[in-house]
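for the record, two folds in this file. i put them one after another cuz i was lazy. first one right below, seq on top, C-alpha cells after. the second one comes after a little note so u can tell where it starts
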Amino acid sequence: MTDKIARGIWPALATPFTDDGSALAPERVAPLVSHLLDQGANGFFVTGGTGEGAAMRVEERKAMTDTTIAAVSAAVPLIVQVGATGTENAVELARYAAAAGADAIASVAPVDHPNNLQAAVQHYADIGAATDRPFYVYWIAQTADATITAEQYLEAMEAVPNFSGLKFTDSNFYFFQRLVDLASDRLNIISGPDEICLGGMVAGADAAIGSTYNIMPKIFLRMRRHFEAGEIRPAMELQAQANRVISTMMRFGVLGALKAELGMRGLPVGPPRAPNNPLNAEQQTALRRDLDALGFSVE
C-alpha cells in the first residue's frame, strides 16, 4: 500500500501576479493560502494548469514553490507540478522543489510529444528518478495517449521511479475506475474535473484537485463529507450548485473569472497570463451580477 499523500479536497492553487501580470507577487501568496487553510483545504497543487506553470519562467516557478511551502508551513501536504516545459527544466524544478520541502512532484506529459505513451514514460522516468519524493502523473485528456488500456498504462508506468499516483483531468471515468480497481492501494488516484467531482468520488478517487476550489472550497468539502457519510442526495445537490457557478465562469473564461472572484473576495492575485484573458471592468460587473443571481456570495 502506497502512502497516499492526497486525500480530500485540494485547491489547484492560483499563482498571484502583480496587477499588470508581468511578475510574480510573492506577498500575495500567504493571504490566499491562509484563507484556503481557514476554509479547510486538505492540501495544495502548485504551478499546475490553474497555477499557470506553463506561462511562468523557471525562476518564477522556483520562487512560487519557495513562497507557497513557507506559507503552508507543513499544515497540509503540497505537490509541485514541474512539467509543461522541457524535460531538463522539469528535472531541475523537481530537484529544487524536493530540496525546498515539497511533499511530492508531478508532471504533465512532455510538451513536445503529446499523446505518446512511450515518450511520456521516458519523460516521467527522468523526473521520477531526479528525487526521492513520490512522483505523480498529471493526466490531461488532450495530451494523454487515448489508444491504450488501463492495463497497458500501468504496465508501462512500472518503468517510472517513485511513481505513486496521478491526477486525472479527463471525463473518461470508465478508464479512471479501471485505474482505481487495478492499482488498488498501490497508487494515490485523484480526480481533476471540478464539474464531475462527485463522479470521481463514486469511481473511487482518494482526493480531488481543482481550480474552483480556490473560490468555493466549502461546497466541495461538504460534498466530500456527505459522500463519505453515504448521503448521496445532499452531495448531488452540492455538485449541481457548484456546476451553476462553474457554468457561469465558463462564459467569461474560467481562469480570468476565478482570478477576478478572488479579487472581489479581497484576495488580489492579478490577471492571468496569455493564452488566458483577464476580465475587464464591464465583464467583472457582469460576472458579479450573474453570481449574485445564483445566490453565490463572493465574500
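(here's the note) second protein begins now
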Amino acid sequence: MEEKLTRLNKYLSEAGYCSRREADRLIDAGRVTINGSVPELGTKVTQNDVVEVDGKSITERKADFVYLAFNKPVGIVCTTDTRVEKDNIIDYIKYPKRVFPIGRLDKPSEGLIFLTDDGDIVNKILRASNNHDKEYIVTVDKPISQTFIKRMAGGIYLEDLDKTTKKCTVRKIDSHTFSIILTQGLNRQIRRMCEYLTYEVTSLKRTRIMNIKLDVPVGEYREFTADELKTLNMLLVDSDKHYKESKQDIKPTETKETNKIHSINRRKE
C-alpha cells in the first residue's frame, strides 16, 4: 500500500503548528527540515517522516482544536515570530497551547482577531475569494461629509497598490465616526482609503468577523461558542460558491454573507 503524501505546508497546518502561508515562510527561511534535510517549497511528506521546525519535532496531530476571539489592544503586533517582535500577540496572550492569529490587525488598531491551532480553518477564512464580512468602527480627524461616505462606499483606487477597493457598506455614526463593512483585506485598507480622501484615522476598531462579534474587554479573549463555530463552518462551506457570486454586481447594503447570517438566526428563533 502506497504511503499518503502531504504537502509540507499542509502537514504543518494540519498539525496545528501554523497556517500554510506561515509554513511557506518558515520553509523558505530554511527553518524546517525533513529527516534532517532542508526541503524546497512544495515538498511532500509522509507520516513516517520526521518534520522539525527550528530543531523541534512536529509529529503530533491534534484532534481538539482551539478557537479564540481576542480583543487586541493597540500596540500589539499580530505575528508569531517572538524572536523579532517583543510586543507580539503570542507573548501577550500567553495561551497554554500553541495558537496563531487568523489574518492581521495592524499595530495602531484594536479589536477582534481570531486565534486557533486549526490550520484548515485559517486557510478557508484567509482566502481572498471568500469575501467574508469584517466590520469596523473608525474615528477620523475632521467632520465626515456625505461625499466622504458615498466615496468610501463606492470604491477608491489605491495607486500604491494599483487596486480599486470593492464596494462596501459605510454608515455615519457621529460627526467624526463611521462604521464600515469590508469583504476585502488589502493592507491598511481603511487607513489608505481615508488618506486618499484627505482624512486621517485617529482610532480603528474591528467589531465583527463574519458571524462573531467583539464582546470581551480589551486584552482579553474567549473561546467560540458551539453555535458560533457551527455557523462559521456553515458559512465556510459555501466559500467557492460565494466567490463566483461575488463576480456579479452585489448591492453593498447587504452582502450575501450577511443575508445568510440573518437567515441562520431566523431559523434559530
